[in-house]
Amino acid sequence: MTTHKSAAFATRQNVDERARLLLLINANWTTQAVSTAIQLGLPELLREGPQTADTLAQAAHCHGPSLARLLRALTSIDVLTESAKGRFALTEVGALLRADVPNSLAAWGEFCGTRSWSSWGLLVQSVRTGESVRKQMSGIDGFHHLDNDAQGASLFNRAMVDLTQPVALAVAKQVDFYGMRLIVDVGGGYGELIASILCQHPSLHGILFDLSHATTTVSDRLTATGVEGRCKRITGSFFNAIPDGADAYLLKSVLHDWDDHQAVRILENCRRAMTPHAKLFVIERIAPQHFSNSPHDQDIARSDLNMLVGTGGHERTESQYMQLLRAAKLRLTHSLQLTGPYCVIECATV
To answer: Which candidate in 256, 261, 314, 334 is catalytic?
Structure first.
């Protein structure tokens, strides 16, 4: 009897584990369902209230029965609700797919289902070679390809804004900028981070420094927050030189894009730009020494693989960041845990 019960328990446990594994394997459908909804403009069409599938199909220029299937799929993952009368509405989760709301994930959701989608399909090649998909295809890592792709650059930078919003607010509120006059956001994209800081600290001025695909585009964020008059945009590469003479330099989600040699080069250029009293704030995820199955560690693991296929970089542990700082002749002065997996590593020159 005991053996029979043990076998039955083992069978049930195996079924549960198999079901959990199937959820992981089949997770790609949710990315595509959400991305498709954004590309069709469904969150914007539902902004004013519930709509029927037929009304949405007409407005989105879709095949009605096929759109109805997508709507039901989105209902099953809590992006939409469906009333007894067949009218669909955004849930609180789904509302975050609107581009005009705080903490929107609209651009990131579209980016994951379009521009970055094919790279993940070549993960096995990156694991075998240690090279990003971009390097395998074009021979180089980096973001210069966006200089000749206005649509891709816009989506990429808007996606980075989506991810940066909560981190930028935490930096603006928790990092000590007392006594500072000028800060430089190195590789700052569309300026979400610098805008949040300048908005929180009216006496500060800023420089948004990045490649032309970011700096030559009018930043709605700088304008919307009323800080554009206090923020100068300078085009350049952090591999060449960084604007000097500022009181603080920001590197938010920059170093994880690059291998150790390139990361040290960026840090060295920051050091060259810094005065003896200037500070450098490195804002990155900090990887654990050993990964668990917690959501925190899963987020870092996902990002680490995303760096592998996308840019050739990787997430790093605290000790690995310390090695980069020493190699660039910088020293740790303070560290601060922010929202989620992000940490601020405050540095000074040696």
So the answer is: 256
